[in-house]
Amino acid sequence: xxxxxxxxxxxxxxxxxxxxxxxxxxxxxxxxxxxxxxxxxxxxxxxxxxxxxxxxxxxxxxxxxxxxxxxxxxxxxxxxxxxxxxxxxxxxxxxxxxxxxxxxxxxxxxxxxxxxxxxxxxxxxxxxxxxxxxxxxxxxxxxxxxxxxxxxxxxxxxxxxxxxxxxxxxxxxxxxxxxxxxxxxxxxxxxxxxxxxxxxxxxxxxxxxxxxxxxxxxxxxxxxxxxxxx
Length: 230
Hints:
The chain is 34% helix and 11% strand. The chain is of the alpha/beta class. The chain is globular. The protein is built from 10 helices and 6 strands. The longest helix has 17 residues. It has a 4-stranded parallel sheet with strand order 4-3-5-6, sandwiched between helices. It has a two-stranded antiparallel ribbon with strand order 1-2. The chain has one domain: 3-Layer(aba) Sandwich (Uracil-DNA Glycosylase, subunit E).
């Protein structure tokens, strides 16, 4: 596992390193020439990560998990963070993410390189579970309040991976089919801009066994598109 405090996972490493210098007649602040210039997207992401819109509805409290850069050409849209992702603050840092990386044929370093791959789920915080133990839907506030502004600052996105029905309903709109299976089966209608896939959760292993065409036809197309854009 890649430590959250190393490399690109260290959010504090992005901040300019500045020194306040005092002279007899004046003082001023000098920042390192190597510090990355803060962009409008950086400012928006900071606001998103400080969001408290639906705090009262979140069993573990607010902790938005997403990654993005204005240079990213690939966007991954999932459902919402699970408990492990909530704990670590790293998206897709669980068995679902392991399977997704296998489907994409990328390693963790590539997957988490936000300059190439943006990760923005439909819900940014862990929403909790229903009475049957299943995941609650993503909170709607995220897509309503933040998503349009985020997408407007991601001009280079050429390929969006839609993992699961929540993502597919939002991005495909009335083009979605009557079932997830039918939507994924007709992936060519949405490709190369979008690619609908089942959520890579271990809970969907039986779905994959019952639909062998997915790994035979869709996974190669996914890998080819990802390889082209990286």
